[in-house]
Amino acid sequence: LHWQIECSQGNSRPALKQGEDHSALVFVSQRRPPVSTPLSGSDVEKEKETHNYLSKEEIQEKIHKYNLAVTDKLKMTLLQNPNGTYTGFIKVQMELCKPPQAPAPGNSGCMNTLHISSTNTVGEVIEALLKKFLVTESPAKFALYKRCYREDQVYACKLSDREHPLYLRLAAGPRTDTLSFVLREHEIGEVKWEAFSLPELQNFLRILDKEEDEQLYNLKRRYTAYRQKLEAALSEVWKPG
Hints:
By secondary structure, the protein is α/β, with parallel strands linked by helices. The protein has helices at residues 41-49, 56-69, 122-132, 165-172, 198-237, and strands at residues 37-38, 77-78, 86-94, 111-117, 142-150, 153-158, 179-185. Its main location: cytoplasm.
């Protein structure tokens, strides 16, 4: 797999490529949108209907219209090949509930600009982001969501690992207030345990056993203290006058 990924944090610029005009390739911080709600089943199906693959001529026309609407010079480029492959940029907001196991702090909440190909999948984008920030946790713990805005409502839909983010960006247009991407941890019950190795699963069990022992110890200590207070109170009541 040969492709490039460029990330920007804070107000820094993405990595520049020789020969390209990057005079306006500047990261602009985005205000965090309101809390999102999942798309309904019918809405998800409608979204899937728009993900049909296009002919090279249709792709060329869409890219032309897309680039005309671009205001930050993050344009798409149709490659000179027969299969209609193109490259472009997407921005991914990292919304992590807890700090990832990474040496570099401050990753949660940052916006990252990625230069990818139309052939790159959601799974590859997740792996590239984690690799960029030296996150040691398994990619199976994370998911990429698309956030859509409709009639003052915000909807979130988890993308499958085989979907192509750049195609979704092209279909929606360049405006991030219409469609944006968010990296999150899987919610409870959504973790793909089969994607973990045996040593990782055994380590999870050891952690659970340790947490269970700690909870039992704290619970027993609390009830022991409660019992001692209750017995002391009873002894005062039954003490001969």
